[in-house]
Amino acid sequence: METYIYLSKVADKQQQEEEQPSIEEQEELNVADEQQQEEEQPAIEQHEQQEEEEQPAIEQQQELEDIDMIRNIGKQKCSQMKSQIMVRNVRVFSRVRLLLPGQGAANSVVEYIGEDGELVVRNPVRNSTKPGKDFCMFKFNKVYTPAATQAEVFKDIEPLVRSVMDGFNVCIFAYGQTRSGKTYTMTLFRNLIVLLEQCAKKKNIKKKKKQSCKKILGPIKRFDGDVVEYLKVMLLSLVHKSRAGQGRI
Ligand SMILES: Nc1ncnc2c1ncn2[C@@H]1O[C@H](COP(=O)(O)OP(=O)(O)OP(=O)(O)O)[C@@H](O)[C@H]1O
Question: Whose CA is nearest to atom 14 of ligand 1?
Answer without folding.
Answer: 179
